[in-house]
Amino acid sequence: METPDAALRTYLGRIADLNAAAATLEWDQETYMPPGGQAARAQQLSTLRAMAHDLLTDHALVELLDTAASADDPLTADLVRVTQRDVEKARQVPTTLVQEMAQGSAEAKEAWRKARETDTFATFAPHLQRLLDLNRQKAEALGYPDEPYDALLDIYEPGMTTATVADVFTSLRAALVPTVEAIADQPTPDDAFLHQPLSEDAQLAFGRTVVEDLGYDFSRGRLDLSTHPFSTAFSIGDVRLTTRVAEDFFPTSFFGTVHEAGHGMYEQGIDEALDRTPLADGTSLGMHESQSRLWENHVGRSRAFWSHYFPVLQQRFPDALGGTARDAFYRAINKVEPSLIRVEADEVTYPLHVMLRFELEHALLNETLAVADLPEAWNAGMEDYLGRRPPTDREGVLQDIHWALGAIGYFPTYALGTLMAAQLFQQIEHDLPDVEAHIANGDFAPLLEWLRTKIHRWGRRRTAQELLEDATGAGLHAAPFLHYIHAKYGALYDDLPAPEAAPAA
Amino acid sequence: METPDAALRTYLGRIADLNAAAATLEWDQETYMPPGGQAARAQQLSTLRAMAHDLLTDHALVELLDTAASADDPLTADLVRVTQRDVEKARQVPTTLVQEMAQGSAEAKEAWRKARETDTFATFAPHLQRLLDLNRQKAEALGYPDEPYDALLDIYEPGMTTATVADVFTSLRAALVPTVEAIADQPTPDDAFLHQPLSEDAQLAFGRTVVEDLGYDFSRGRLDLSTHPFSTAFSIGDVRLTTRVAEDFFPTSFFGTVHEAGHGMYEQGIDEALDRTPLADGTSLGMHESQSRLWENHVGRSRAFWSHYFPVLQQRFPDALGGTARDAFYRAINKVEPSLIRVEADEVTYPLHVMLRFELEHALLNETLAVADLPEAWNAGMEDYLGRRPPTDREGVLQDIHWALGAIGYFPTYALGTLMAAQLFQQIEHDLPDVEAHIANGDFAPLLEWLRTKIHRWGRRRTAQELLEDATGAGLHAAPFLHYIHAKYGALYDDLPAPEAAPAA
Question: Would you call B276 and A13 a contact, using CB atoms and an 8 Å cutoff?
């Protein structure tokens, strides 16, 4: 006879297996699948996802959870609590609405691609309108403390509220806009030497070497090519990365690889006791993004890091970089320049791209902004925050796929991750005073060990807020990020305004 | 309201999706999965297979089949008939037996690997004994016309009987053993030039070029590396091949790739109307093998083929093959030499390896041979048929994985495929008198079209016997193969005995 705990684990294991299979099929779709596989693959994924959803919302699971709720070991208690929340959310949204969302986003994705090609927002507008309506229905089905956006945000960033995001973003904006203005008035550093053709294989090999040094475990992972970089986990023992290569701009693949390795090390670091349960995942998208940003920016774009790796890079690419000074290289990879495209933005301007999207989708959901007025609102916002007005919608409101996927409440997590990364790294510098020296020696083990202990191993057992408070003694706030930006970029540019003190949330 | 036909299709589509997902996970396991993924992958596969099995044996499907049985279109009638047979077979074998087989073969596989390493058959023997017992139980559960082996053979080669196999093999043996003896007395052709190191990439590229010429469609497939070559289909639009490369023996990857492409073209040629149903598969393992053997041997090892490709090969590998004469090359790739290892055997000796395995597993199942006596029976058989006695069990009875997987009744299909290939090719030469000239011109379209029309498109709608009879006017018989061998190898070796006439089965 199985214990209640074991029976629950067996049941959840089947769901985990279906989800892992779906993730493997998606990985294959983005990496190796031939074009002829497309139609059947969509059906296979739909079948797997539907079966996982059916198991998650079956009353049998409710009963298993109720029975296991009396278990007194802390892991089972966490498992029951987190799974109960997943089950509730899944049961709250009617199947018809789930299907309408899937249908609506499949059509919207297609319309979005065409609208982008032809630069005609109007053809995408009715699809966005439909997805907003469906998202409002979804928010009503899920319920919320204060406003519909809370319900959607909570899917991606459990426990986070619209009010907190708005507060944190207000202090961020107040400091960043003048910083960007001050930088925009100054000459941009020369980065022509970054725009030289380097072989794809050599670029990938360098990225592989570095992320293996950082601590990404290739015996439990891979690095492949895909159009859009991502990381994905099929189990704690199989966490994969993809990257893309721009032949004549090495930072694209390099920082992309380090970024995804940050995500990957998070998943590789989860306690193995959580494998095949809903706890074996990042605790929120924001926390996930904090891990990628921490490795990409706080480590990968630091002086200490390149004091170790620039000689290696020069050795690998002597023709292209043999004559470049390390300081010039450091300045080039940290060039700040207000740009139109979010995914190409530097770390100073990046949060402003995200804030604009948050404000717009929040207003759209609350119907204080009409879909028809969105392009103009976008362009005006870009001018306000970054001093640049997109000449086309393709380079403006149509650049991201998220809204076409029906994802409202997702964007803020990118900026929350950026803030969490800075807050964690500030604490790391406090807890590990030698961390910079370690990085300069290519020794990342103490840093990774800190992250494993404080963040990774917990999986979803604790929320992002709980982990942050335990690790740093404070809730999410913007001050560490603003201090980091001021210190780093104040050394690269003249006369940056002092960051305002931002209170903890 | 769905029609009975559509409801059945929807139900079967979900099973097909689960099986396709499992096949994708298995492909990944053999090609790209990191070692850390092993344990979780085994669980994922077990979950997917169990869910597919549950759906296949659910009473709901029996009812759907009964309702759809009244449909009067021929495709639905075939679908119902073939699926009913699958369902019956699946329902006849008790779940506990399925689980015991899975458990038993997992343990036997492990024991087999160790027994091979240490060359100690005795440690594998109890596992084989257990699997034989389970196979006897399985045969009893399935039922059989004449003897237990019939039930097992029928799984892999529907409609084939032990008596027919024994008959056909008897005439085959009578002709092949003296042929092999006659050849073994003559000097072997020099093939030293085949044993030169050639780069892996260049070998793969040549294989890719050729199989694309043959008609394997890369927009609906791929070629990757794996330890053991295989082909697998996730849908008619996604049929993949793998191969392996021996750096210093080019035939390994080349003929391996052509062989797998033969399998792959079969699956790519199935009528698209059958996709996502149980009909979208090869009709039997023998017929599947006939397609790989036909392309590998009747096409790929023919004079006509190399009159087109040898200049291409020389151009690709001028250092290694620039000085070799085409005729010497043709003789080298058709060298006949009795060897110990089945998978390395030439096309003359190959069927003898298979016949030995058939006789032994047949005797083991019927308990006329004891497991303890198997190694000696193996060695004696090898001496009888091929004049060679394995010095170790590793090169003898422990060389193949099939018995460790619990597969009894599988081996004969390799030789049946060889015979079917010859029988089909004889008919092709009759129906397409210019086929040799087409091959010599690198034009494979008429040949592929013939195979598509007569064999591929049917999927499992007709049995192998029905397809053979429709295509060639006769049931399976050994004469075409023996004539082919006599004609081809009589031109390469002196004084081969004439093939005996073998009656059709």
Answer: no
Q: What predicted TM-score, i.e. pTM, was given to this entire model?
A: 0.95
Cβ contacts (< 8 Å) between A35 and chain B: which residues? 219-220
DSSP string, A54-70: HHHH-HHHHHHHHHHTT
Tokens representing residue A284 in the block: 């929120």
Q: Using an 8 Å Cβ cutoff, are B152 and B459 in contact?
A: no
Considering only alpha carbons, which residue of chain A is nearest residue B40?
A: A235
- Could you tell me if residue B161 is left (phi over 0), alpha (psi between -120 and 50 degrees) or otherwise beta? beta
d(CA A464, CA B453): 61
Q: Chain A partners of B220 at a C-beta cutoff of 8 Å? A: 34-37
Chain B, nearest residue to A19 by Cα: B44
- What is the three-class DSSP state of B187? coil
Q: Could you tell me the two tokens for A391?
A: 């000449």
Q: Answer yes or no: are the C-beta atoms of A367 and A155 closer than 8 Å.
A: no
Q: Which two tokens stand for residue B161?
A: 């009987």
Q: CA nearest A50 in B: which residue?
A: B14
| B298 has pLDDT over 90 | yes
Q: What is each CA distance from A441 to A305, A334, A444, A445, in whole angstroms?
A: 8, 21, 8, 11
**Set B260, B267, B359, B361: catalytic member:** B260
CB–CB contact B40 A234 (8 Å): yes
pLDDT at res. A475: 95
Q: Report chain A residues touching chain B, CB-CB < 8 A.
A: 13-14, 17-18, 20-22, 24-25, 28, 32-41, 43-44, 46-48, 51, 217-222, 224, 234-238, 240, 275-276
The domain locations on chain A are 1-92, 192-340+432-464
Helix (H) or strand (E) holding B238: strand B238-243
Distance of CA A175 to the CA centre of its chain: 23
Query: Which candidate, B173, B119, B151, B123, places its Cα nearest to that of B391?
Result: B119
Angle between helical axes of B59-68 and B38-57 (0-180°, round to 10): 50
Token pair for residue A473? 């003694």
Q: Which residues contact A200 (CB under 8 A, 6 or more apart)?
A: A245, A247
pLDDT at B72: 86
A156-165 pLDDT, tens digit each = 999 999 999 9
User: What is the mean pLDDT of the segment spanning A462-483?
Assistant: 97
Is residue A61 within 8 A of residue A11, CB to CB? The reply is yes
Is A37's CB within 8 Å of B237's CB? yes
Residues of A in contact with B13 (CB under 8 A): 43, 47
Q: Which of A100, A157, A260, A296 is catalytic?
A: A260
| Residue A359 falls in the annotated catalytic set | no
- What integer pLDDT is reported at residue B500 of this predicted model? 65
B331-334: Cβ within 8 A, 24+ apart: B331/B189, B331/B191, B331/B492, B332/B189, B332/B190, B332/B191, B332/B193, B332/B194, B333/B191, B333/B194, B333/B251, B333/B255, B333/B301, B333/B306, B334/B301, B334/B488, B334/B489, B334/B492
